[in-house]
């Protein structure tokens, strides 16, 4: 028998948003590089997105096994527009009702994949299935064929523990405007507006209950984090919330070469080499990088305040705005709705706007980048941690407020811009507050201590994934467990 037959065949089934597909691809590459066979299951248009980086990976590592298995996604039949295989298709629409309706339809269509996944599991019999939290039915589907199902949430221990503790609290306790999260280590204070809406009466609330139930019945959870980042919460999660959990992150640090760092997710809307040259011309730790991830919708009134705040702070910046990169007349007209007149002329040489998609990890890892203004999506937070960056935290939805608390209260490497509630409830930050938070992190009173704490965390992150590190070891035990 060849030694290959002892290595596990790990199947990955990511949710189709970039914030889930990007770390899943990193995870699949990592498992392959540790000897496993990895297969990512996804739909035709999403497969196209993954094909190029997989090709690059396989060119660099011809002996490693990483494949894509394509499943059908008949969007029209499911009530979605043709080709709507990724939330990116509708999340930049400026019509709020349309965005919400489409998001609900998109989530509802996720159960359509059940039969196809069952068929694949029946015929392939992989060693395990790492399926996204957004597929709660996957635990039972895998059980039918004796395949262990692992859950991937795409977030860290702190937010998982926060959500668990908030759920367990009695309603009146959490109805106060500011409350202490019972049982959660670290005396964490939270406000009503920061909580994720888990009202059991709403569609989303019901859905999250299914997610929790399927997690409890699953074989465990794979976490993109590292022990040293949030030790108390890793311990709490493992002893109170789930039967098993393995932390194997930060996943993004395995992208070491230019190609891998610069080409993640969508095609970048700027020339990566030009961007690198621009960064090379800047002083160390002097550039502010501003991004709200791949889903968040920021209203024009808010974009204008960000522009004004960045202009007033006087520092160099790269600002990613999720608008189409095509320079059509229509786009130029639209620009006028969110950019103060003459802005680009005035910040020429020190400010760069990327309309669309940025090579984020390449920018964060550059020595000229000194501050990360982030919406606190977990991938972004971890990428910022791995790059040793202090942050301005600006959560807008999902579990991002919990991630903000980790950064500002626990790690103390960030300053909040001051958002009090989910953007859907109408939070707004003035240009003065944008400027104030950025100045504080760039060169304020505690800036040096904050930066030095952030740099230490980056060293810990790198050590965690090296041979013998905490994430390396957790991955070894995972592979060993599922190899037989
Ligand atoms: N990203 C990127 N370029 C962009 C926007 C996002 O490379 O212009 C990547 C980012 O590096 C991260 C992911 O997309 O890996 C976004 O995930 P995150 O959890 O931060 O936020 P989400 O998009 O899910 O809200």
From TrEMBL:
Enzyme class: transferase
EC number: 2.4.1.-
Swiss-Prot/TrEMBL keywords: Glycosyltransferase, Transferase
Alphabetized GO MF terms: UDP-glucosyltransferase activity
Stored InterPro entries: UDP_glucos_trans, UDP_glycos_trans_CS
One Pfam family it belongs to: UDPGT
Family: Belongs to the UDP-glycosyltransferase family.
Protein known as: Glycosyltransferase
Biological source species: Raphanus sativus
Upper lineage: Eukaryota, Viridiplantae, Streptophyta, Embryophyta, Tracheophyta
Gene symbol of the encoding locus: LOC108840673
